[in-house]
Write a structure and sequence with these properties.
mainly alpha; Glutaredoxin; three-stranded parallel beta sheet; 11 helices; 3 strands; 58% helix; elongated
Amino acid sequence: MEKKHPLPWLNMLVSETFYLSHFLLFFSYFVVRASASQMLSPDITDRLFRREIQVILAFSVLIAIKQMVKEETWEAFIADTLLFAKVFLLMVALIMDYHLALCYLVGFLVIFISTQQPAYQGLGNSNQLTPLQLEALLTEGNTSRFWLVEFRALCSSTSIRTSRIFPDLSITYSNKNLSFGIVDLGLFPNAAEKFGISLGVEVARFPGIEFEAKASRPSITKKLLCRHFELDRHLVEYVHGK
């Protein structure tokens, strides 16, 4: 049996280039700050210190709101946290020197181009399906068993942010009458065309929404999927043997 790392986040920080590069870039600010404190004038040092306090307070409030009110997955939470941290770092760097802020901006662009945030690797109780396996399930004619299948492309930031939702739902709702499957379009790009999926532009979505009003598109959440696919009803019927 494979042993889990006792400190998974520390292991991910060291092993994933995306997280390690962000950590090193953010940590470099403390080195620069300590070196520059002796060269900056008292007025700039005082203004920088006040701005740092303001940034810490604003950052803390934003993260607390994101965690308590909106975000459902750690992947989405981390993505938003890093975005806020980048903005605030650029703000305080501008006070010291605009060349420093420009260096950080270039560093963030390099990370954006060369790395990608890792998706959640767990499957829960869902099944990793190939297109052939999915086609076989669709043609076998078993009407007593339902399959809920997610097509995901992990080159998409949206898929990464929601990569934990489907495995979590499968742990709660999978049973002998309802199964969950995942098809990775990154591994099987030809499956997108075969099953009528657009990899470039979102053209339709289930649950259905008003597609003309882009700003009104709801985020994919566990609650939204549960309500649309009536997962609670399926679970209750399974428990009562219907």
